[in-house]
């Protein structure tokens, strides 16, 4: 189980140790502003250390951050399922069932439900420690054009 990170530990020592298998996710654009985020290639999970900047008005992790993390994890999983083709989110639904705490490790774990010729259906969980914080489901449209550069976190599994 990932060790909780306190604000004091994060401020004094920099980022806490990453859980096994996670590496920098190479986020750009919006996720670069709210990150850093990390990826575990083995299962396509994305994660982050919850910091004060991720808090909502009542001091827990903002639901928009959890949705952004789920969108990235499920979106990259959709691209993998589409053999590297670009994909865009058509629908993303979230059910929040717990609160993410500042100072903890939070990750989104994607699962491909089905791929058709033009769509990828996915579901996922956002978890912290042993607790599920949110459940996600969504649909991604497979585009005809391929990305000009590899998408961070979308590299093929080394197996």
UniProtKB/TrEMBL annotation:
UniProt KW keywords: Hydrolase
Origin: domain of life: Bacteria
Alphabetical list of Pfam families matching this protein: 4HBT
Domain Thioesterase: 59-133
Gene3D superfamilies with a match to the protein in the record: Hotdog Thioesterase
Name of protein: Thioesterase domain-containing protein
Provenance organism: Methylobacterium jeotgali
